[in-house]
Amino acid sequence: MSSSVLPDRARVVIIGGGVIGASIAYHLAHEGVTDVVLVERDRLTSGTTWHAAGLMTCFGTTSETLTGMRLYSRELFGRLEAETGLSTGFRPVGVIEAVGDRDRLEEYRRVATFQRRLGLDVDEIGPGEMAELFPLADMDGLVAGFHVPGDGRVNPVDLTMSLARGARALGVRVVEGVSVGDVVTRTDGALPRVTGVRTSAGDIECETVVNCTGMWARQLGERHGVVIPNQAAEHYYLITDTIPGIDPDGPIFEDPARYGYYREEGGGMMVGLFEPVAAPWHLDRIPDDFSFGTLPPDWDRVAPALETAMSRVPVTFDVGVRTFFCGPESFTPDRLPAVGEAPDLQGYFVAAGLNSVGILSSGGLGRVMAQWIANGRPDVDVTAIDVARFRPHQLHRDYRRDRVMEVLGKTYAAHTPGVELTTGRGTFVSPVHDEMVAAGARLKDVSGWESADWYAGDGQVAKLTPSWSRQPWFEQWEAEHRVVREAVGLIDMSFMATFAVTGADAGTVLARVSAGHVDGDVDRITYTQWLGPDGGIEADLTVTKRGEGDFLVVASDTAHGHTLAWLRRAIGEADVTVEDVTEATGQVNVQGPRSRELLAELTDADLSHEAFPFRTARTVTVAGVEVLCVRITYVGELGYELYVPRADTAAVWTALRERGTAYGLRPVGLKALGSLRLEKAYRDYGHDIDNTDTVGSAGLGFAVDLAHDFTGRDAVVAERETPRHERLVQVLLSDPEPLMFGAEVMLRDGVPVGDVRSASYGWTLGAAVGIASVAADGPVGAAWLDEGAWEVDVAGTRVPAAVSLRPMYDPTGARVRS
After folding, report:
1. Are residues 95 and 199 in the same domain?
2. Of 68, 89, 221, 247, which has the fewest CB atoms closer than 10 Å, so is most exposed?
């Protein structure tokens, strides 16, 4: 194809003509951005889209963002033909999700309650009703099902073509047969930015590139250091010969326990498979010329799982097989999409890694991406799907091989609390790893770090059985929680993202991005937020001023990449250096009413309240080691964070344990950290708060200093004058028995008004506790909360609850400042 087909310049270039690229092009045009070129190296739908099974299922997630994407997609597929003249093949035949065990029934009841609040019509039905709707299935062993009548099926090729026609009609150029060789960039301040693309038909200058290349996304991104660790793997389905009497408008049936999904196809039955032992495909590089290809099936590996899947619909054994298909699909390490602007390359957007739900997510994802590109910020919570969450180690070949086998193999696994991924562990190891193991730590993966969830005791081996109910180890969890409230606990938090920010302009830059007053007195720590221009929270962190032009920034592990990128983009041409010191620094927390007494035995520093008040940060010597000692807390008690050189952290930990015996000290894990902070209603970015929240709606106005100018200040002032109608509140169940895990629905006077964002068990408060988002017709205030009768729907059971804008534990903060 000649270069004359391509323009010399466009505002946006989309690379990849699958359903995601076509949807982004379509939605950009509807946002008024029509100076767009979609470039496809072969023909539209080549790669993965053309062979997708075409399920349109909304059920199964407790993410408001992902549910919203699916609901929007379903609605779009039903109306697109009227706009474009091309059918999408959408047929709302309904979907049944089968349940064969009590753990999955508990999970699905919670999911159903959550998604009903968001508008999904879903009913729990029994085996008899399931048999009436899908008579070809054997209902043996099934206890229930969840029926979504509005879900169904769509034709992926027709859908893509309809989206592309809609985009073209509004001025978007869609060019096939042109490959992109590279993305062109230039250095722009502290970070490079996109300036164009180099194609087989000539260069295109542009402001924004969108990598929608599916299973090729990783290798395209690697050329410029963009981490997109998706990996292709084999995916199977078969289509039987004609089955007499099969209903072409019958529902889709899914039975995850038998690894299968089933629907009518051409008079026969499609049996799709997510086998428990999966296989990666082309770990080193996806061939550039692979388009509408298939893969040779591995019968020995797949046959047992396929036989199990077919046994749910026995008639599939009695007819011949018309088609046996194996093709590649790509998966990310956490089975969530890779979405958004690359953290280290401005103007480079990613929409890839859809994990076998690309078709059913395509409409909503296209809308979100288009809005983000056109307006500069997403209008939904993207903290869980932001491409910035990935780290370079996840690109390693062995990591991708092991992880894709596991995540694809667990596609249909139940999400019972305690279930964890086991591959790719131990990339980052705490400097006190051996000491935690010796104390009986139950280790869990925290953004690649091995960290203690709870402790079985010195010399003991921690055992955990996934469950929705109380377990024997709850006794250890409770003891760790109470020791922090009553004596002193020792917590390793070396996984926290830690950055040294230095230079003549460091204070100026940090002041500009921080809503709090961070560039004040030396030896002070400030809890603050970084905001977007619209007031949305981009980071929730602490900034410690160690000296003039010398700061330490600490953020949560999940926000590592995004926080670093936000700061680097703010630097511009300023004299600021940012060094990631996370791996070089141990963070040991000493928390509890006796923490001062314990530390006083190991340091000559005066730790009295008068000499070392709350928010002091000072370099002192502890057990002969020079550390940065910060008086701050995330558990609501008197406490200190110690930032220690990695090589010396174990010595400090050991000294604290030895000397702490007299004060009742014990190691404390993340399970207790969560229950302690939720009793105090402390927020956690990416869990309780996200980019759609503001300091006003999140209840964080106390952390803002309007006396200085900062990004988002105008939005903060405007919200104080006109408050939003959503607010975060603390919630406590009145019954001590039920457990909350997050995503439970909040009801006021019997009406759903929000949901629990994160939850734990409050051992001091005596019941399950959490932080919830609730909405009203007007501003949410204490009177509105007090006047309502509050309940929480826990897996279909409504439990009375109390709600509060103030922390229910130590609301005045007296213990923190004691």
Report:
1. yes
2. 247
